[in-house]
Each structure stands twice: as C-alpha cells, then as structure tokens.
C-alpha cells in the first residue's frame, strides 16, 4: 500500500513505527534520545521558569514550566498546557516549541503542567 505524505511530514512519518507502547520505559528512552538530538528551542523574548508545586498529600511534587513574555510585568491572559503522550510517554520539554509560539503570538503566559506517567503510578502502587 502506498501513502502520500505532506513533504514536511516525510521525515517524521518514519518515526511512528519506532515507538512500542507495550514497553513504555523503552519508548520513553527513545523519545529522550530524539529530544536530545533536536536543537534547543529559541527562548529569545520569553522568560522560562521551572517549578515544582505540591499536589495531593503523600504524592510527589508536580513539575510546572512557566513561559512569560520577557517584556511584560503586568497581568496577562494565561494558557494552561498539558503535554501529550497519553499519560504514558510525554514530558514537558516535548511541548517547548508550541508553548513558546503561543507566548509570542498571543502575548500570554503559558503554564505547562507535568504529571505522573501511568507506568510510574502503577509501579509506585505495586512497589511503594
């Protein structure tokens, strides 16, 4: 069977078979490799702050990345972002380019929330 892809997607299309969700740890490792190979995002004009905030009692701190226009001290609109990955593979840095773009286009603050991934939650429940 032949598929037609947009020319901009041809390189990415080859990656789709690289991720096996039956092995989430290996898939996360592959994603980290791909992310490490990408150039660092251009943060010019954007202040980026990483924080950890409390979640529910007896749970780990929740990672948060805040993106704010560097030229603004006032009150701004806000966008709350939850990275992709289906609660299995994603991490905050995967959405850096998108969040930076939103800040620049909308002149808004973006708060990108991390969350525990499903396999980590199950492992903690089983093994403490």
Automatic annotation (TrEMBL):
Top-level taxon of the source organism: Bacteria
GO MF annotation: an example: hydrolase activity
Keyword terms of this UniProt record: Hydrolase
Domain (Alpha/beta hydrolase fold-3): residue spans on this chain: 79-117
Alphabetical list of SUPFAM superfamilies matching this protein: alpha/beta-Hydrolases
Keyword Aminoacyl-tRNA synthetase attributed: no
Residue stretches in coiled coil: none
Stored InterPro entries: AB_hydrolase_3 (IPR013094), AB_hydrolase_fold (IPR029058)
Keyword Hydrolase among UniProt keywords: yes
Stated name of the protein: Alpha/beta hydrolase
């Amino acid at each position: 069977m032949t598929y037609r892809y947009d020319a901009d997607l041809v390189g990415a299309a080859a990656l789709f078979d690289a991720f096996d969700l039956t092995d989430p740890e290996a898939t996360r490792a592959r994603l980290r490799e791909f992310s490490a190979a990408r150039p660092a995002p251009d943060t010019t004009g954007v202040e980026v702050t990483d924080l950890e905030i409390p979640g529910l009692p007896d749970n780990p701190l929740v990672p948060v990345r805040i993106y704010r226009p560097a030229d603004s001290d006032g009150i701004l609109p806000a966008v709350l972002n939850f990275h992709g990955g289906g609660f299995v593979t994603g991490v905050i840095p995967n959405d850096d380019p998108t969040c930076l773009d939103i800040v620049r286009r909308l002149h808004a603050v973006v708060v990108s929330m991390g969350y525990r991934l499903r396999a980590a939650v199950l492992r903690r429940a089983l093994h403490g």
